[in-house]
Design goal:
Elements lengths: L6 H5 L22 E3 L2 E3 L8 H20 L8 E3 L7 E4 L8 E10 L7 E6 L3 E4 L7 E9 L11 E3 L1
Parallel strand pairs: 3-9
Antiparallel strand pairs: 1-2, 3-4, 4-7, 5-6, 5-8
Length: 160
């Protein structure tokens, strides 16, 4: 039920992210400016942390620069479910970039919120993670160019 300035971009098909402070004060947003019961309501300059906003702008600029330099995320990434095994078979479509060096498979425990491991697999379009069950890990694939720029991770979908 939360919105933000990013919603119109998402509605028009553009990737968008909402950045916010960690502990929002709802008295200072989505309110008509007023004082009620001695409490100031509304989105006013005195409630803005300009140092925090500057840091968010720096993080955004660095993130956008990394994304602009990186290859596109692999497409059609899949976990192939053709055989009953503790191995995990992954496949993906080749990236179009001329400076592509290859791919990394990344994984994490199902309880981890971040990728904790990666394995360079080369310029291939499939790879088998030996003795790593798809039931015990989350997997992803990312493209890497010759300068070491990495794409966002693409999650696999199961296919037969």
């Amino acid at each position: 039920m939360r919105g933000g300035d990013h919603i119109p971009f998402l509605e028009r098909g553009y990737p968008a992210v909402r950045f916010t402070e960690p502990n929002e004060n709802y008295n200072h947003q989505h309110q008509n400016v007023r004082i009620e019961g001695g409490v100031q309501y509304g989105d006013l300059p005195e409630f803005v942390d300009f140092g925090y906003i500057a840091q968010v702008a720096r993080v955004n600029a660095a993130s956008l620069a990394c994304l602009a330099l990186a290859p596109t995320a692999p497409k059609s990434v899949a976990i192939v479910n053709k055989r009953l095994t503790n191995d995990t078979d992954l496949q993906w479509a080749a990236n179009p970039e001329m400076d592509l060096a290859g791919y990394e498979v990344v994984w994490r425990d199902t309880t981890s919120p971040v990728w904790t491991n990666s394995l360079w697999v080369g310029n291939v379009n499939n790879f088998t993670m030996k003795k790593m069950s798809k039931d015990n890990y989350f997997f992803g694939v990312r493209a890497v160019d010759r300068d070491g720029n990495r794409s966002p991770v693409a999650y696999p979908k199961p296919v037969r």
